[in-house]
Fold this sequence. Notes:
This protein is mostly beta strands. About 5% of the residues lie in helices and about 60% in strands. The protein is globular and about 45 Å long.
Amino acid sequence: MVLVSAITAGCGSNANSGSNEPEKAVTTVTYCSDPDNEQHKGIRDGYSFELWNQYGKGDACMTLGEGALFKGHWSGIENYLARRGYSYDNTKHHNEIGRFSSKYNCIYEPGTESGNSYLSIYGWTVDPLIEFYIVEDWRRWIPSMAEGTENMGSFEVDGSIYDVYVSLRENQPSIQGQQTFKQYFSIRRDVRNKGNIDISAHFDFWESLGMDLGKFYEVTFVVEGYRSNGKFEFTELEINVE
């Protein structure tokens, strides 16, 4: 399901504003999954977006706002990912694209009754096929709790220590269908829902540990939920490449 709506923003001709500037209409687009459409993806305002809800179960929606902004909610789901950022064509490594960073503020409200959730920088590479996360906040469970996850070390950046892990996913969904691939995680000890992230510092540290990254498919901000419920809204989001 896709819903398009328009809202007005700005002072306009409000008598209390002291401004005669016209109000700006902001068009939002909401995507919701169902059993026949578990995925919605595309590009809007120069930013890629994707809603993926495994099996199309439950109530899972994502609303695109102005620029990179987005919000969403989920309940009764198997695995929900809503993400927005930049997509690439699998031909360049990160250092051929540029230095990545982000500034964000997210109202992040996952439930705590069951399942888990991440607020994270997220993406994929190919050759090798890697799924990666820079986890800023989470609920109930993180990969370090999983059997077989390897602790690769820790480093300090952006005002906190991040613990780095590698895990192996066997015959699981990926950008190339069902595959076996590695996941890389940087998990922030001092969780937060706003701030600045030096994304490339994580890429550099991973590679210094022998955690090779391939050619880039995407760099995004994601909210993920697994067998849980919740909602979120980014009130500020920049993903920068220099």
